[in-house]
């Protein structure tokens, strides 16, 4: 859909406001911390009248200051193409869904999942949809990202989720609202995660392993230190904050055609400083095999 129908947009905003109103009790005002409610299917409002409007795509921007992000609309579109068309992260999404089924508390009750640094929203959407269609769970999905471009794409294309622009360091939600916190290839803030997590909730963090995009690293970086990635410090920090109850190395290769390699170059911060020449070298081949190598860590609170 290139031309956006204005009526569709209004409806989208209203649909979204109606959906959010069912879950308004999870919010707290980012300015004064008071509870919030949906007002006239237009905004989220606290008792001090601090007001945040629904955007026409259906998301809410709950930041209180302008934030610059290096992640652009083009990057998120490229990421979306790789995830949806090339199934680039499919095994990882499947592993997360299985982990949630195995480890999440209160099997029969509705479940709330928040994705911190959700980008354009495909992981959260895939995981929630798999949870409800294959595993018959009632799931509420909340996606948070600091980038308006990412959240805008997520909200435009994925209905029946709550999409919020916010800094994951300081989110506009009340304490202990979530059964599952996802954190996929994004920064973490464990103090904030612990504030949001229910006492028996789980945190699932995905981080790169040594082989992740190694073909790209070898072409783009000339020193061995940059060509080889180690996640030891990140794993240590996660283990210091949580009791690790499960982990899995999700490692595989994906064959990408030239157009998808182009998307790969667009979607990763690794190529932000690449030269034209390096990019051309990578785009020379008709198709390229690329390694995806990730650690999926599952933690729960330390007692
Ligand atoms: C590499 S992308 C991963 C996005 C998504 N999880 C995925 O795997 O497609 C990192 C994401 O973290 C987000 N991010 C970085 N700092 C953030 C912060 N302080 N609060 C919320 N999101 C943040 C970026 O905007 C970006 O969408
Ligand atoms: Zn307020």
Automatic annotation (TrEMBL):
Record has Transferase as a keyword: yes
Gene3D superfamilies (alphabetical): Vaccinia Virus protein VP39
GO molecular function: metal ion binding; methyltransferase activity
Binding of Zn(2+), residues: 29, 32, 46, 50
Residue ranges of every copy of the 23S rRNA (guanine(745)-N(1))-methyltransferase N-terminal domain listed in the record: 27-63
Keyword match Zinc: yes
GO biological process: methylation
Keywords from the UniProt entry: Metal-binding, Methyltransferase, S-adenosyl-L-methionine, Transferase, Zinc
InterPro entries tied to this protein: Methyltransf_25 (IPR041698), RlmA_N (IPR048647), rRNA_m1G-MeTrfase_A_prd (IPR016718), SAM-dependent_MTases_sf (IPR029063)
Residue positions binding S-adenosyl-L-methionine: 89, 120-121, 212
Origin: domain of life: Bacteria
The Methyltransferase domain, residue ranges: 113-201
Protein name as it appears in the record: SAM-dependent methyltransferase
Originating organism: Ammoniphilus oxalaticus
